[in-house]
Amino acid sequence: MSEVELRLQRLSDAKRFFKILSNPNFVFFGAKPKSIEAEKEWLKKGFEKRKKNLEHNYAITYDGKLIGGCGIKINQHRTFIGEIGYFVDEEYWGKGVATKATKLLEKIAFKMGIIRIEIVMQPANKGSVKVAKKCGYVKEGKLRKAISHLGKYEDVYLYSKVK
Ligand SMILES: CC(C)(COP(=O)(O)OP(=O)(O)OC[C@H]1O[C@@H](n2cnc3c(N)ncnc32)[C@H](O)[C@@H]1OP(=O)(O)O)[C@@H](O)C(=O)NCCC(=O)NCCS
Fold it and tell me: Is the beta carbon of 121 within 6 A of some atom in ligand 1?
């Protein structure tokens, strides 16, 4: 059986992440690195953010192959709250990868002392809504103009799970 695992991100993941994120079908995802170099810079910033407990990012592997990323951003006002995000290479969509990755990341987060995990997504991002539901997150409502996406403020659904 194919196995989904998480590991810490590495600078050498930049090329693969750049390829995955350059997919024009990632319409709901804000992270569009301009180059492999830019992706390396983002990864380096991520290592610093981990040390400062701002963000904890992971690579998603499938049978050992790098196929996506996920992470938890720590709310800096209430550090017991974290927000999970994820992306998966389109070739692997619909195989339960993001669902498994979210469940693994959630375990890590709760062990870190997080009490409440949030997932937000645009209402049209049906795949992401399904991931949140399959992982047992509860819909709390719609946040109006809560994200800035490609220069526009957009509404999102808020899902959460508490420890
Ligand atoms: C959203 C995303 C992470 C889902 O990853 P995934 O590994 O395919 O997710 P899973 O397979 O665990 O679950 C997705 C479910 O949604 C379903 N789904 C996907 N797209 C869908 C759509 N457009 N309409 C309805 N259902 C959809 C899948 O069939 C699957 O359901 P199933 O388990 O009943 O078969 C992936 O599509 C992705 O990387 N998108 C681009 C980045 C992104 O939008 N990230 C989230 C930002 S909030």
Answer: yes
